[in-house]
Amino acid sequence: MIVGLTGGIASGKSTVAKMLNDYGLPIVDADVIARKVVEPREIAYKKIVQAFGEEILQENNKYIDRKKLGVIVFQDEEKRLLLNSIVHPAIREEMKRETENYFKKGHETVVMDIPLLVESNLMHMVDKVLLVYVSPSIQEKRLMKRDNFTLEEARQRIEAQMPIDKKKEFATEIIYNEGYLEETKEQLEHVLSKWGIKINH
Ligand SMILES: CC(C)(COP(=O)(O)OP(=O)(O)OC[C@H]1O[C@@H](n2cnc3c(N)ncnc32)[C@H](O)[C@@H]1O)[C@@H](O)C(=O)NCCC(=O)NCCS
Ligand SMILES: Nc1ncnc2c1ncn2[C@@H]1O[C@H](COP(=O)(O)OP(=O)(O)OP(=O)(O)O)[C@@H](O)[C@H]1O
């Protein structure tokens, strides 16, 4: 079984992914892979430099400066879609490859952590959609705190995604991550048991 873990930016996907990993489930993380496929020498790297210019590179090591690129793409939808068109195919391929590897190693369940699962219409890649939900106001507060963003920066990033309330329509199950982590964990265990997924306690 492939579980698609999704949510909004800063809703708690990584937090829930960590819990799932502690239960012994392998995680294929789109954000981690998104970093890997844009390292120098990767095809997507070359395309990004062609499209956005050398200004978006770090001076010392020529890696992509994610902060600079983030500022550009989160205030300009056209540029964000251009970046997506360059990196998403490579991310999807690598995600499929890593997932297959886990199955080959004998895992019965693999978790794909994909922030843009619904936006990119990737529901066909997973068997269940697990949505980590927080209200937009908590989302905004946690995002500002975690990344040291101004309200405007946080809103730009939230607005680059489908509103989290709309994502509920696509979820097989929803986990409310607005309270204590212990409460999130209880909901998670309930869902896993409902789906018949065995976990290490
Ligand atoms: C713009 C970039 C350079 C900013 O890097 P940064 O290290 O600051 O952020 P990071 O990659 O950790 O992403 C943080 C969160 O932002 C959100 N996010 C990232 N990219 C996008 C996007 N293109 N559209 C909407 N939300 C996005 C996700 O919720 C993600 O979890 C980077 O996010 C990127 O390369 N994005 C394009 C690839 C992508 O779509 N990644 C999302 C997972 S597929
Ligand atoms: N139940 C909770 N109570 C308080 N803080 C929380 C809770 N869950 C997560 N957080 C905090 O909220 C922030 C966002 O969580 P996390 O990084 O897991 O979100 P995410 O959905 O993975 O974000 P992104 O889309 O950027 O990858 C983090 O600083 C995390 O420590």
UniProtKB/TrEMBL annotation:
ATP binds at A10, S11, G12, K13, S14, T15. InterPro entries: Depp_CoAkinase, P-loop_NTPase. Pathway: Cofactor biosynthesis; coenzyme A biosynthesis; CoA from (R)-pantothenate: step 5/5. Gene3D superfamilies: P-loop containing nucleotide triphosphate hydrolases. Its EC number is 2.7.1.24. Pfam families: CoaE. It catalyses: 3'-dephospho-CoA + ATP = ADP + CoA + H(+). PROSITE patterns: DPCK. It comes from the Bacteria. One of its GO terms (molecular function) is dephospho-CoA kinase activity. Keywords: ATP-binding, Coenzyme A biosynthesis, Cytoplasm, Kinase, Nucleotide-binding, Transferase. It is found in: Cytoplasm. SUPFAM superfamilies: P-loop containing nucleoside triphosphate hydrolases. PANTHER family: BIFUNCTIONAL COENZYME A SYNTHASE-RELATED, DEPHOSPHO-COA KINASE-RELATED. Catalyzes the phosphorylation of the 3'-hydroxyl group of dephosphocoenzyme A to form coenzyme A. Belongs to the CoaE family. This is Dephospho-CoA kinase. It comes from Evansella vedderi.
